[in-house]
UniProtKB/TrEMBL annotation:
Keywords: Isomerase
Keyword Isomerase appears in the UniProt entry: yes
Species, as recorded: Agathobaculum faecis
Molecular functions per Gene Ontology: isomerase activity
Signal sequence annotation: none
Domain Xylose isomerase-like TIM barrel: 29-258
Official protein name in the record: Sugar phosphate isomerase/epimerase
KW Ribosomal protein (keyword) present: no
InterPro entries: IolE/XylAMocC-like (IPR050312), Xyl_isomerase-like_sf (IPR036237), Xyl_isomerase-like_TIM-brl (IPR013022)
């Protein structure tokens, strides 16, 4: 089974299509990609009728949806604040129950704590990490029961030390998923984050694959450009071999953040134009090039 190649909607943020999901879908299809990854806020803003209309259009384009995105300080299910944890549990279950409206069967991201959370300046960071992981595992029990009912893989994204502290490597994430215990508890790996944290990216991919927990994969250059567009310091052929050796048949989704005009540019630390002044049509061509490049390394 061939891996389907996709693109996170955030690639289009900062362009004239930023706020138009139908246009984003159209551009993604023009780039010959098979998956459009949307965030939970986008899903929750849509009415069921709008979801039905978008889903019909996506099927006409040959595109399906996955979900990516997480939590913040107000609904952090790993928080020491019980009210925040309750709010997060309710939020996650509400998202899971709406995913079927776009026929989504996978939710990835920092959906186990708040994105960009760091330990408190005072106190023991390691002690806080253990405590927060405990809260997260406890909170995830009702959430994963909902995921099981809905037939959804709940994939914990392994991000770098500057974006989260509960876990930063494949090995830590697999242990966390095992502690959660559900067969729907999966691990989401991302080459951008792995380039920062892993001793050996390919070994980490294989470890997650052999564990049976590898549920989702993001592909991006070490500076978050589109893979295969310009120079690279990542060994993409080795990454492709590792995914095959891991038996990974899931989606490979590009998550490039390249525009300083994107609404989230400050949060993703995009301080220079990594698109090199690309027009909207050039962005389509770059995404198309990235998709073709990834298909090539996965099929070698």
């Amino acid at each position: 089974m061939k891996n389907q190649i996709g693109l996170h909607m955030g690639y289009w943020w900062g362009t004239e299509a930023s706020d138009d999901l139908n246009r984003i879908l159209e551009l993604t299809a023009q780039a010959e990609l098979e998956i459009l990854e949307v965030n939970p806020a986008c899903l929750l803003r849509m009415t069921p009728e709008a979801c039905q209309k978008l889903l019909r259009r996506a099927k006409d384009c040959g595109v399906r949806f996955t979900l990516n995105g997480g939590l913040d300080a107000t609904n952090d299910i790993a928080s020491g604040d019980e009210a925040a944890r309750r709010k997060g549990i309710e939020y996650c279950i509400r998202v899971l129950e709406r995913m079927s409206e776009l026929e989504m069967t996978l939710w990835s991201g920092v959906n186990y704590s708040a994105w960009l959370r760091a330990p408190q300046p005072e106190g023991d960071a390691q002690e806080e990490k253990v405590r927060a992981c405990g809260y997260a595992v406890q909170s995830l029990q009702p959430i994963l029961r909902a995921a099981e009912r809905e037939g959804i893989d709940y994939c914990f994204e392994v991000v770098n030390r500057f974006e989260q502290f509960l876990f930063n490597t494949a090995q830590e994430a697999v242990a966390f998923a095992e502690a959660v215990g559900s067969p729907r508890a999966k691990v989401h790996l991302d080459t951008y984050h792995m380039n920062i944290e892993e001793d050996n990216t390919c070994a980490a991919i294989c470890f997650a694959g052999v564990s049976g927990r590898l549920g989702h994969f993001h592909a991006g250059e070490s500076n978050r450009r589109v893979p295969g567009v310009g120079a690279s310091n990542l060994d993409w052929r080795a990454i492709g071999r590792a995914l095959r050796q891991a038996g990974y048949a899931g989606a490979v989704v590009m998550e490039p953040f390249v525009l300083t005009t994107a609404f989230n540019a400050k949060r993703t630390r995009v301080w220079r134009d990594l698109s090199h002044g690309a027009t909207l049509q050039q962005l389509v061509c770059d995404a198309q090039t990235g998709g073709r490049f990834l298909r090539g390394i996965l099929e070698e």
